[in-house]
Design a protein that fits this description.
Blueprint (H helix, E strand, L loop, with lengths): L1 H58 L12 H26 L10
């Protein structure tokens, strides 16, 4: 009788351990499947971004040299010219935006 009880206890332990392992394997399989689908989505998004970067890179090939490596005097002169052009455009825009009665007589 004792032997039968011990055999039943061992069988119960093996069944419980098997069920526990089966559940752990199913959870791991589900997580692996979810990870695979996330990786596929990320790969698709990366491909889309890469094509956009390639398109933008082709459009931006006119930048031959970084400003950091340029001559500071030339860069400063170009910056001053650009600022003066923007000032002139702003002044012209403000002048055009004024109503007729507020404009200078000689303009």
């Amino acid at each position: 009788m004792r032997t039968l009880v011990w055999i039943l206890v061992w069988i119960a332990l093996v069944v419980v351990a098997g069920l526990y392992l089966w559940r752990a394997v199913r959870v791991a399989w589900g997580q692996t499947t979810a990870l695979g689908s996330e990786l596929a989505t990320a790969s698709d998004r990366l491909a889309q971004v890469q094509t956009q970067v390639d398109r933008l890179g082709e459009a931006n090939d006119r930048l031959d040299e970084l400003a950091v490596f340029g001559d500071p005097v030339v860069l400063r002169r170009e910056r001053a010219q650009g600022r003066e052009t923007l000032r002139r455009q702003g002044r012209d825009n403000r002048r055009r935006a004024l109503p007729t009665w507020a404009r200078h007589v000689d303009s």
